[in-house]
Structure formats: structure tokens, C-alpha cells
Amino acid sequence: MSKVFVASAGLVQVGEHWSKSILDLMAEASLLAMNALPDAKPDRVIVGNMFSGVGASQEHLGALLASQLNLIGVPAYKVEAACGSGGAAVHNAFLSIKAEESDVVLVCGVEKMKDMEVGRVTAALTMADSAEYTQFPGGTFISLNALTHALYLKKYGISREEMAGFPVLGHRNAALSKHAMFKKAITAEDVLRSPLISDPIRLMDSSPVCDGAAALLLLSEKKAKELHAEAVEILASEVAANLFSVYERPDPLDYLATRTAATRALERTGLKLDQMDFMETHDAFSITAALTLESLGVCKPGKAPHDVSTGRFDLTGELPLNTFGGLKGRGHPVGATGVYQVAEAYLQLSEKAEKNQVKGAKIGLTHNMGGLDTTTFIHILRRAA
Amino acid sequence: MVNPISYWRLKDRYFNLVGSKCKKCGAEWFPPVKVCRKCGSQELGDHEMPHTGKLLTHTVLREPADEFKRYAPYILGLVELDNGQRLLAQIVDVDITSVQNGTPVRLTLRKLTEDGKKGTIYYGYKFTPLP
Question: Would you state the torsion angle of the CA atoms of residues A129, A131, A132, A134, taken in this order, to the nearest 10 degrees?
């Protein structure tokens, strides 16, 4: 089996791209990644995307992108795992290189959300959960997270104020980043003053509706040696699926998929959680940030809000978290997020993170969820010795 | 989004909370399952769930999907039925500020959405506090 290397990344700034189509976004990110390494011609194209069908009346994104890049005849397809579609694309590329079926894989994650009216975006995101038993009775994806948020506050006696540390951290890191959507630091008061969307979740507890695309070139060991592009290796790519909807789970606060995929990734690499120099986690909402850290074992149950308040997760803290702002600050173009995260890990490990650089970062973990921890992808990346 | 055919297919589930019951171990499931999550048996039959339970927790939804805008803000609850199965449902006949977690609730059949002024009207389960 071949090792797998990340050789380049192309990032479109997350935001409101009124003048660009979904294809424009994919092509822009892909060409940035490809032009950084002109001698690596992709022999496979994998696109991660959640809802281009309902959002842009466009499916078949793999061939659409490959055709536009003039990569004719190569395998090209889209993969989907709701908000984890980007992680699914990286995972699929990882497997094809591991299996020595590919040497150069172009991975592109993309989502175009701003073309849709807000109620349509709400409905589209809810496709991550059950059409028959969540959408039909009037549930939304945010409301499922709100129910877990309410259960969490009650179980541990945590105040709404304490949860505001996560969006504050996300915005602070995003303000330093070139490709993040939000460039402005916020305070806990800003979070608590923002409108309620689904109690207790407020607007600023939530990642934004946005457009974005990110791309990576992944190389086999053979190709990476040939091109002297062995700087960053993907050591593990693991995925696990939980019981589908949160109301079906014995404990709605247990992110079983996160826990399982992370345990497998750590076992496979022989690494321990405390060896991670930074993490990029799926903080779609303040509550998902907290439950992720607790399910990973980074924080004790009920202690994540306290830990964020101590500065433990700051860029200069013990374990820098969401170093470019995470889903809240960088933005969450849903099907692209998992690719942004791995790209950000690549920037950290190749000392290209500029103002967001975690000094001396050698190992990082990314965590990308489809649905509410329904399908979770974990990647562990390491800088070459 | 629901359509007349999927609605027809699911009518017993939406009107009477018909889920599944394992013929081997007796475990009951809602939403229905194809494989028993307790014993692994594939021998399951349709089974009506209890129509009463309690409200475990709730949220007040202020930004719903378009077809539910007429109801916003509305209460969406995590309901635990008397047999332990949980589901997501709107809680009605109670004010958004006075609804209490732990309240006993029962099924009530109500209108959910409609396909325009001349299309199908979709009814389904909501829950209401027991008097």
C-alpha cells in the first residue's frame, strides 16, 4: 500500500460569491491547487458536495469539473455524505491512492448556498436528516442541534453565556485568515444579543450560509518522491456512521461516530490524542463544538465551555482549535468544509499558515461530520520528519 | 419534501404512529426498522406505538423551512413515548413561553403542510399536553 501525501491546496475565500457559479468556484479552487504543482497531472477527480441538485439544479459535478479542466478520460465523480461530503471526498481519494489505483488525485469540495432563499437552504440542510420523520413533522437541522444544546445545558447546569466562547474563538482566528468569511472579532455579548433561530441556538451560535470551494492535490508515495513533494502525509483517514437521527440514539449527547472514527485513526497511527499540535473540528454550532471535544476525549464531559474560556484552545494555547476560524469563522459551505479542513491542516504543517500559524506544528487532526455526527470523517496529518 | 405518494405510503405511520415490533424479542421501534436493534432479527411486523408519552426537551423554532413559516414560532419537542421510543414532533395547544419539559403529552392529528390552495393537505401527528 502506498503512503498518501498532500502536495498542494487551493482555497477560494468563503463568502457571498454572487458573480460565480458552482462550476466557477470548483474550477478556481482546482486550478489554484493544480498550478501550484504543474508537473502533477490528476489521474482521478473527486468532488465533495451536498446539495448542488436542489441548490443549482446541477448534479454530475465530477465530470463537469474534469471536463472544464480538460482532464478527459480520467475517473471523475462526486461523493456525498451531507455536511461530511468534503471529508468523504478526501477519504475516497486516500483509499484510491492507498490501493495504488491512483498517483495524483484532485479533490475538490464545493457548495453554493447563497443562490437559494433562506427557507430553501434550511430545507436543503435538513436533507442531512430524515425526510420522513424530521422534515415531515416540521423539524430542521438546526432544531435537532437545538434539542441537544438544551439537553446539554440542563445535564451539566451550563449557562448560555458559557457556550459563547466557541464563536468568539472562531471569529478571532478567522479575522487573521485570508480565506475566512468573517474578518471581525466578536464578543460573548454579540453572541447573546444575536437573534434566536431555534432556542437556545442564536444566529451567532451558527455557522453562516455561504459559498466556497477548496481543492487539494493528493499524491502517491512514488509521485511525491518524484516531485519532491513529501512535506505533509495523511497518516489516517477514518469514517464511522452513527444511528441516523439523534432521536433514535440511546444518548443524544454521545457522538459515537466521532468517538469511533477517532479511536480507529489513533490506533492505526499509534498516536495519542495529546500528541496533536492542533485540531480542525466541525463547529457548525456552539453545541457541536462542545460535544465534539468531549466525545473525542479532549475535554471531560460538561467541561468544554470552561476549557475554551481558559484559553486552552487559542492559537498560542495548549491545543489550538479551528486555527483559521472553523465553521463559524471561516464559514461552512457544507460540502466543501471537509476539504477546507484538510487544506488548513496542510497549511499548518507546511508552515504556510501565515498569521494563523501554530508554531512548530507537526501533527494535526481534522474532524468533519455529515449530519449531527451521523457520518464522521477523521483525518490525521503529519509533517515529514 | 413530502408528496402525495410518499404521504399515502406513510399514512399509518403519520396518523397512528405505526412503527415496528420484533417478532423474536418483542422490542418496539419508531421510526420503523428493518433489522431489530436489540436482537438482530429481521422478522418484524407493523405495530402501533402508544399515543402518550412525555416531553423530554423542546426548542422554539423561529426559522423553519418555507412550508412551515405560517406556524413560526412553534414548539418542536423531543417526545418519549410510554414504550421508550422517541420522536420529533410539534407540541401544540400550549404557549411557547409556558411549555414545560417533563409534561405528559398525547398524540393529536393535525394539519402540517399543504400543496398550495388546491393541492393535497398533509395531516400528521403532533402532541398536546395531557389535561
Answer: 50
Residue B77 to chain A, least CA–CA distance (Å): 8
Is the pLDDT at B131 greater than 90, yes or no? Answer: no
Q: Pairing state of beta strands A278-280 and A363-370?
A: parallel
Residues of A contacting chain B (CB within 8 angstroms) = 117-120, 122-123, 126, 130-140, 142-144, 146-147, 150-151, 154, 195-201, 243, 245, 247-248, 252
CATH of the domain spanning A4-116+209-232, picked from 3.30.428.10, 2.40.50.140, 3.40.47.10, 3.40.640.10 = 3.40.47.10
- A342-361 burial by CB neighbour count: b if 16+ within 10 A, else e? bbbbbbbbbeebeebbbeeb
Residue ranges making up the domain that contains B12? 4-17+50-129
- Residue-wise pLDDT tens digits, B42-75: 999 999 999 999 999 999 999 999 999 999 999 9
Query: How far does the CA of residue A300 sit from the closest CA of chain B (Å)?
Result: 23
What is the DSSP track for B49-90? Answer: PPSEEEEEEEEEESS--GGGGGG-SEEEEEEEETTS-EEEEE
- Confirm whether A332 is a catalytic residue: yes
